[in-house]
Design goal:
The protein has 252 residues and is an alpha+beta fold. Helices cover 18% and strands 35% of the residues. It has a seven-stranded antiparallel sheet with strand order 3-4-5-6-7-8-9, with helices on one face. A six-stranded antiparallel sheet has the order 10-1-2-11-12-13. A hairpin with a 7-residue loop joins strand 1 and strand 2. The two termini are 26 Å apart. The mean pLDDT is 94. It comes from Ventosimonas gracilis. Pfam families: TANGO2. InterPro entries: TANGO2.
């Protein structure tokens, strides 16, 4: 998952609103958003290469999502899949705070990541490079491949679009999918320097990424209501950004 914008507003009738893009090589085997056969209380996408996930929820209201950290001049660390961090929280019973405290003790097992975990009452965040779990206050946030709210152009644009969508009485799913479909690339002077070639930095600078080998594989929208019920939808894409299909789930 390479872009997540979300609103955490515990007192609102929509306490949690999430819009997220998962970017990955098109050849990596994946299962689309679904209830897991071996854990039917979980609804999430699934990485078939390592078995984990990038975003998911449970029937009881648990939520987890992940982005990788993109950085230069840093050697590879542990070999464990970062996707297991999402799956581990969704499968487990630990509170968000306790789960992240445990993860923080094993950061060297993973390459860089940002991890969001929450339940009906709290939302917590951990950046693997900072190593300090934090409980999030009410607000509108964004994550890409750096720390929380790092002002990359695509993140700033999507956070603003999310804020505008939330001005409506009820967040509109089409407005959320629309902000995720934005293919506008940043100007060269605005690009971050994460150790990639200029052409690749340009490619990755748009909210929705499309190329022959790598791009946005799934766009996901999550709406959680104050009664704990949820709507979760996914749109899927293939090579060059071609539309492949979509599905949705309502959990009560």
């Amino acid at each position: 998952m390479c872009l997540i914008v979300f609103a955490w507003r515990p007192a609102n009738k929509l306490p949690l609103v999430v819009a997220a893009n998962r970017d990955e090589f098109y050849t990596r085997a994946t299962l689309s958003l679904a209830a897991w056969a071996d854990a039917p209380w979980i609804v999430a996408g699934r990485d078939l290469q390592a078995g984990g996930s990038w975003l998911g929820v449970t029937q009881s209201g648990r939520f987890a999502a992940l982005t990788n950290i993109r950085e230069k001049n840093r050697g590879q660390l542990g070999k464990r899949s970062r996707g297991e961090l999402v799956a581990g929280f969704l499968r487990g019973q630990h509170s968000p705070a306790d789960y992240l405290a445990e993860v923080a003790r094993h950061l060297d097992d993973y390459e860089g990541f940002n991890l969001l975990v929450g339940d009906l009452h709290e939302l917590h965040y951990l950046n693997a490079r900072d190593g300090q779990p934090q409980k999030l206050k009410a607000g509108i946030y964004g994550l890409s491949n750096a720390a929380l709210n790092t002002p990359w152009p695509k993140l700033e644009r999507c956070r603003a679009a999310l804020g505008k969508a939330l001005e409506q009485d009820e967040a509109q799913t089409e407005a959320l999918f629309s902000l995720l479909a934005d293919r506008q690339q940043a100007a060269d002077m605005e690009l971050p320097d994460t150790g990639l070639t200029l052409d690749f930095e340009r490619l990755l600078s748009s909210p929705f990424i499309a190329s022959r080998s790598y791009g946005t594989r799934a766009s996901t929208v999550l709406l959680r209501r104050i009664d704990g019920s949820m709507w979760l939808g996914e749109r899927r894409f293939g090579e060059g950004g071609g539309y492949l299909g979509e599905n949705s789930f309502t959990l009560s």
